[in-house]
UniProtKB/TrEMBL annotation:
One of its GO terms (molecular function) is chromatin binding. It comes from Corythaixoides concolor (Grey go-away-bird). GO terms for biological process: brain development; chromatin looping; digestive tract development; embryonic viscerocranium morphogenesis; establishment of mitotic sister chromatid cohesion; establishment of protein localization to chromatin; heart morphogenesis; regulation of gene expression. InterPro entries: Scc2/Nipped-B. PANTHER family: NIPPED-B-LIKE PROTEIN (PTHR21704:SF18), NIPPED-B-LIKE PROTEIN DELANGIN SCC2-RELATED (PTHR21704). This is NIPBL protein. GO terms for cellular component: Scc2-Scc4 cohesin loading complex.
Length: 133
C-alpha cells in the first residue's frame, strides 16, 4: 500500500512539473510577443493558438473542476497571467476569427465558475480587449 501511494505521489509530481513547465513556456511566448516594439515576425499564429489551447484545456480540465483552486495555486496564477497577457496581445496584434472565437469563449466561461475571482478579473480584461479589436 505504501509503495502504491508513493508511486502515485511521484506520478502526480511528475505530471504537475510538466504542466508547470508548459505554463512557463506559454508565459514566455506571450511575454515576448507583448514586449514593446516587437517585429511582426514574432507573432506566430500557431504559437498563439497553442497557448490558447493549453490555457482552455487546463481551465476546463484542471482548474474549473477544483472547487478550491488553492490546491493548484501555482497553475492557477500562471493561467491568470496567460489570460491577462492574451488581452495585451489582442491590443497589439490582429488575430484570425477562429482564434478570436477561442479567446472569447475562454474569456466568458470564468463567470460561470465559483471561487475563481482573480481569473474573472483577468477575463474581464480579455473580453474587453476582444470587443475592442
Amino acid at each position: 500500500n505504501n509503495d502504491t501511494e508513493d508511486e502515485e505521489r511521484l506520478w502526480r509530481d511528475l505530471i504537475m512539473e510538466r504542466v508547470t513547465k508548459s505554463a512557463d513556456a506559454c508565459l514566455t511566448a506571450i511575454n515576448i510577443m507583448t514586449s514593446p516594439n516587437m517585429p511582426k515576425a514574432v507573432y506566430i499564429e500557431d504559437i498563439i493558438e497553442r497557448v490558447i489551447q493549453y490555457t482552455k484545456f487546463h481551465l476546463q480540465n484542471t482548474l474549473y473542476p477544483q472547487y478550491d483552486p488553492v490546491v493548484i495555486v501555482m497553475l492557477y496564477n500562471k493561467v491568470c497571467d496567460i489570460v491577462s497577457s492574451l488581452s495585451e496581445l489582442l491590443e497589439i496584434q490582429l488575430l484570425t476569427d477562429t482564434t478570436i472565437l477561442q479567446v472569447s469563449s475562454m474569456g466568458i466561461t470564468p463567470f460561470f465558475v465559483e471561487n475563481v475571482s482573480e481569473l474573472q478579473l483577468c477575463a474581464i480584461k480579455l473580453v474587453t480587449a476582444v470587443s475592442t479589436s
